[in-house]
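Problem: given the chain below (310 residues), write out its structure.
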Amino acid sequence: MNERKAIIFAVRVVGLSVINFLVWIVVSSAVSGALGISVHSEIEQSMTAVMLLMLATSFCNTAVLCYAVVRSKFSRLKLVVIVFLVYFGVNTFISQIETIYFNASLNIPGMEIFSFFLTGFITALIFSPLAVLIMGKFRRGGAQSQQPRRLPLNVGGPVGRAAIVAAVVYPVLYFGFGYFVLWQFPVAREMYSGSTEKLPFFIHMARTLQNDPWFYPWQVLRGILWVLLALPVIRMSMAKWWETGVQVGLLFAVLMNAQHLLPNPYMPLVVRMAHLLETATSNFILGFLTVYFICRLGGQPMTSSGRSKP
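Solution.
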C-alpha cells in the first residue's frame, strides 16, 4: 500500500467510524425505546466520556473490518454478507451467548440481553453494505485490482484440523487464559464463583468441570462457531496465509473485546479490563492458529509470493 492509498484508506476508516458510531447510537436508542429499557445512571463515567469511548470502540471495530475488506478478493453482495456475518457473529452473537451462559453471575435482565442482540444485528445490517461501498468494493471488477491468491484450503484434511481447533486449541486457550489471566484478579474470582479463593490450576479445572459438566462441551460448541466465522474470511482473503491469520486474529480480538472499554453496571472496571487482557490476547492467538491449522498445517509449501507450489 503506497502513501496515497494509505491516506485514502485512513480517511475512509475515520469516516466509516463516525458512521458506525452514529448508526450504533441511533439503533441502540431506538431499540431501547421500543423495548422500554431505561438508560443506566449508575455507570462510573460521564455521558461525554461514554460517547468518546463508544467512538473509540467504533473506530477499532471499523479499522479491523476495513482491513479485511480491502484485502478481500470478493466484492459487492458476497462481501457484504461476509462482513455482516463476521461483524454480527463476533461482536454480538458469540459474545452474548456467553453472557447468557454466565448470567447467573451477571444478573442482566433478559429483555436487555435481547436488546443487545437486536442492536448488534441491525447495526451490522446497516453498516456492512456501507463499509463495502465506501471502501470501493461495490464497483464491478473492484475486487480484481490485485491478483487473487488462493490459500491452500483443501476439502478433506482441514475438516479434521478444524475439529482440533474447536475441541482442543480453543478450549486450551479459553481455560488457560481464563485461569492465568482473569482468575488472578480477586474481584473476578468473587464475581464468578462467590469466593476469592484461588486453587491450583488442575484442582480448579477439576472442580469447575465437576460442578458444571456441560462447560467443556459448551466451549467446544463455541469453538465450532469460531471456526465457522473464520472460514469465510480465509476464503475471501487474497493475502498470504500469515497475513490472513493476522486479519482473523484482529477480527476475533477487536470485534469481541473493544466493547470492554465501555462502562456498564454489571461488570466492574477491574473485571472489564481483566477480560480485555484475557480475551483480546487469546482470541488473537485463536484466529491466527485457526488459519495456520486449516491453511498451512499439512498444506502444500508456499512460495515467497504466497502461491502454492505445484
